[in-house]
C-alpha cells in the first residue's frame, strides 16, 4: 500500500528547509519511489478555516488526484507520497484553536481521493516560549508594530497547547499514525532534513547538504526600529525596509535574545507543564523525560533586550547607509538626481500638481 506522509509543521520548526530540500531533490526522490506533491493554493484558505468548507475540500481533492495520476506508472501509484505545509496544523495567529477543523478537512480530502493510502501525520514541536518569540519576530517582519506584551495577550492557555493539537490528529487518523518530533538541537543531531529523511525512508535526504536554509531575520535593534516605523510606511516601503535591515542588520546564526524577562519566561512555561508532560508520556517512548530541556533563571545564554538607545540606533542606521553606498555608482547618481528633482518640484505645488496629472 502507498504511504502518504503529511508534514503539518508546526510553524517556526524548519518547514521552509524541508520544503526547499523536497523541491530541489524531487528528481532523485522520484528515483527512490518518493513523490513530493507541492501544496495547492487552496491549502492557505484551509489553514484559516473555522468550519468545514466543502468547496475548499473539493478543490484540494481535485488537485491532489491530478498530481497522483500524473505520477502513476500504469495503474500503480508510487510507493510513497509526501505533502508538506505547516498551515495544515491550523492558524498560528489564533493559537491553533482551529486545528480540529483543519484536521477533519484533511481527513475528508484524503477519503475523497478514491485511493487506498497508509497515512502518516508528521509534526515537529518547539518549546512554546521559543515558538512565540519567533512568531512575534515574524509578525514584525510582516509589517506589524505591536509590543510583545500586547501580542502575547492575544492568546490564552489553550493556545499552542501541543497536547490538544496532537490529540485532534490522533483521534482522526490514529495515535500510531502521528509521528511527533522535537524541534531542538538536542534531538536533531544531523539537522532537520536528515531527521525528516529518516521518517520517509529517503537516502537522498539523509545525504542532503545545504540545510542552512533559513528565513533571514533582523538583529534585535533592527527589529525594534521596524516595529516603531512600520505604522508610518505603506506595504512597498515596508518591503524595502525589510530588505535593507536584513542586508545590513541581520541576526547572526545562534544569536540569542529574549522578549521575555527571565521570570516571565518561567511563568509562561508553567502553564504548559502538565500538557507537555502528557505529550512526552503519550507520544514518546521515554515517558519520564521532559518534552523539552528545562529552562532556568540562571541560563547564561539568554539575552534580555533592554531598550533601543540613541547609540544603537546610530550604529544600525550607519550599517544601512553603508549597504546603500555599495550600490553601483550609476544607481546612486540616479537616486540623487531623482531626489533633487523631487525636492525641486515640492517647492512649487502647482508644478507638482501639473506633473502628477501628466504621469497618471
Q: How would you describe the overall organization of this protein?
A:
With 360 residues, the chain is an alpha/beta fold. It has two domains: 2-206, P-loop containing nucleotide triphosphate hydrolases (Rossmann fold, 3-Layer(aba) Sandwich); 220-256 and 307-359, no CATH class. Helices cover 51% and strands 8% of the residues. The chain has 17 helices and five strands. The protein is globular. The mean pLDDT is 86.
CATH superfamily of the largest domain: P-loop containing nucleotide triphosphate hydrolases
Radius of gyration: 24 Å
Counting DSSP H or I runs of 4 or more residues, the number of helices is 17
Number of strands: 5
Tell me the span between the first and last alpha carbons.
Answer: 61 Å
β-sheet strand percentage:
5-15%
Poorly predicted parts:
none
Secondary-structure-derived class:
alpha/beta
Q: What is the residue-averaged pLDDT?
A: 86
Question: How would you characterize the largest beta sheet?
Answer: 5 strands, parallel
Quick overview:
This protein is an alpha/beta fold and 360 residues long. It is built from 17 helices and five strands. The chain has two domains: 2-206, 3-Layer(aba) Sandwich (Rossmann fold); 220-256 and 307-359, no CATH class.
Fill in the keyword field for this structure.
51% helix; alpha/beta; 17 helices; Rossmann fold; 360 residues; 5-stranded parallel beta sheet
Task: Tell me the layout of helices and strands.
Blueprint: E1 2-7, H1 15-24, H2 26-31, E2 34-36, H3 42-47, H4 54-70, E3 80-84, H5 99-111, E4 117-125, H6 128-141, H7 148-152, H8 162-173, E5 178-182, H9 192-200, H10 203-206, H11 220-229, H12 235-248, H13 262-270, H14 273-283, H15 310-325, H16 329-346, H17 349-359
Parallel strand pairs: 1-3, 1-4, 2-3, 4-5
Amino acid at each position: 500500500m502507498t504511504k502518504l506522509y503529511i508534514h503539518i509543521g508546526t510553524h517556526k520548526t524548519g518547514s521552509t528547509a524541508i520544503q526547499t530540500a523536497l523541491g530541489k531533490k524531487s528528481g532523485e526522490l522520484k528515483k527512490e519511489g518518493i513523490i513530493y506533491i507541492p501544496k495547492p493554493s487552496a491549502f492557505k484558505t484551509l489553514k484559516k478555516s473555522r468550519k468545514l468548507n466543502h468547496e475548499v475540500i473539493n478543490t484540494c481533492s481535485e488537485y491532489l488526484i491530478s498530481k497522483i495520476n500524473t505520477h502513476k506508472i500504469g495503474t500503480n501509484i508510487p510507493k510513497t507520497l509526501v505533502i508538506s505545509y505547516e498551515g495544515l496544523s491550523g492558524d498560528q495567529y489564533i493559537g491553533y484553536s482551529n486545528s480540529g477543523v483543519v484536521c477533519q478537512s484533511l481527513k475528508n480530502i484524503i477519503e475523497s481521493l478514491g485511493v487506498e493510502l497508509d497515512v502518516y501525520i508528521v509534526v515537529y514541536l518547539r518549546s512554546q516560549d521559543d515558538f512565540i518569540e519567533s512568531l512575534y519576530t515574524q509578525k514584525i517582519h510582516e509589517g506589524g508594530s505591536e509590543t510583545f506584551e500586547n501580542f502575547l495577550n492575544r492568546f490564552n492557555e489553550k493556545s499552542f497547547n501541543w497536547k490538544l493539537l496532537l490529540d485532534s490528529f490522533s483521534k482522526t487518523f490514529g495515535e500510531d499514525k502521528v509521528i511527533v518530533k522535537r524541534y531542538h538541537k538536542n534531538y536533531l543531531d544531523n539537522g532537520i532534513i536528515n531527521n525528516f529523511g529518516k521518517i520517509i525512508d529517503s537516502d537522498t535526504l539523509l545525504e542532503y547538504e545545504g540545510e542552512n536554509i533559513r528565513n533571514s531575520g533582523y538583529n534585535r535593534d533592527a527589529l525594534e526600529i521596524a516595529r516603531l516605523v512600520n505604522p508610518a510606511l505603506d506595504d512597498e516601503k515596508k518591503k524595502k525596509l525589510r530588505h535593507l535591515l536584513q542586508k545590513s542588520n541581520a541576526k547572526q546564526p545562534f544569536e540569542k535574545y529574549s522578549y521575555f524577562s527571565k521570570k516571565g519566561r518561567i511563568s509562561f512555561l508553567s502553564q504548559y507543564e502538565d500538557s507537555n508532560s502528557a505529550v512526552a508520556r503519550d507520544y514518546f517512548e521515554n515517558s519520564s523525560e521532559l518534552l523539552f530541556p528545562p529552562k532556568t533563571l540562571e541560563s547564561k545564554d539568554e539575552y534580555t533586550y533592554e531598550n533601543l538607545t540613541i547609540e544603537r540606533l546610530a550604529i544600525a542606521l550607519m550599517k544601512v547607509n553603508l549597504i546603500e553606498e555599495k550600490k553601483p555608482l550609476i544607481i546612486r547618481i540616479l537616486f540623487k538626481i531623482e531626489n533633487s528633482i523631487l525636492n525641486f518640484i515640492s517647492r512649487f505645488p502647482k508644478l507638482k500638481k501639473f506633473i502628477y496629472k501628466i504621469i497618471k
